[in-house]
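in:
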């Protein structure tokens, strides 16, 4: 149980760090542009099936996927993501 608690605390720290890294203008919100840049960076750094599949899509399809994901994560349809909306990209 203690290990799970420590793992969860570490995950929360990672989530906050990743969010802060993506929040380039440091306003506590991720605009779509910040989200788009960060997710593309994350996917480009990975070598898994999903990342390779995303890279093979035409740019217009990549844009559509990212727009859809942003809308799904934007709880309350605010037009931006806050740290509570942000989750680790799968």
């Amino acid at each position: 149980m203690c290990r799970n608690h420590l793992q969860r605390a570490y995950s929360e720290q990672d989530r906050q760090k990743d969010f802060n890294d993506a929040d380039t203008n440091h306003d506590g919100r991720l605009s779509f542009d910040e989200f788009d840049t960060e997710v593309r960076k994350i996917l480009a750094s990975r070598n898994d099936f999903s990342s390779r599949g995303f890279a093979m899509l035409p740019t217009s399809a990549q844009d559509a996927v990212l727009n859809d994901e942003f809308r799904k994560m934007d709880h309350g349809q605010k037009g931006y993501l806050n740290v509570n909306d942000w989750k680790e990209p799968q």
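note: Residues 1-10 have pLDDT under 50 and may be disordered.
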